[in-house]
């Protein structure tokens, strides 16, 4: 599969401070597992349909479940969002905006009230 998603070195460096510390047995490669979790969620796949390049699907699910319960992903999102506050940039992804087909046929009366 050529369309697999892999986190870059720079992305992993930004995410490392948010990872929990490993106690005892070393974790499986964080880049491989996290890239697999993102790929599964981005494409809406079942865990068992994960490409073999990301490793066992059970490992992907277990890491996702454990880190979700610990709030790791929430901390990652909050931390990354806080890093961008100084730019005050607002971006809108048009894939989530939808206009109803009848919206263009609405008539506006004088004073801005929809008829």
TrEMBL record:
Residues 7-77 form the Insertion element IS402-like domain. Pfam families: DUF4096 (PF13340). InterPro entries: IS402-like_dom (IPR025161), Transposase_6_like (IPR052909). This is Insertion element IS402-like domain-containing protein. It comes from Streptomyces javensis.
């Amino acid at each position: 599969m050529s369309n697999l998603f892999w986190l870059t070195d720079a992305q992993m460096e930004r995410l490392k401070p948010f990872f929990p510390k490993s106690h005892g047995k070393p974790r499986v490669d964080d880049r491989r597992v996290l890239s697999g979790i993102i790929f599964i969620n981005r494409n809406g796949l079942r865990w068992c349909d994960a490409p073999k390049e990301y490793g066992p699907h059970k490992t992907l699910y277990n890491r996702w479940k454990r880190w979700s319960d610990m709030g790791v992903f929430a901390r990652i999102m909050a931390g990354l969002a806080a890093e961008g506050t100084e730019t005050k940039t607002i971006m809108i992804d048009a894939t989530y905006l939808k206009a109803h087909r009848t919206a263009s046929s609405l008539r506006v009366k004088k004073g801005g009230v929809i008829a």
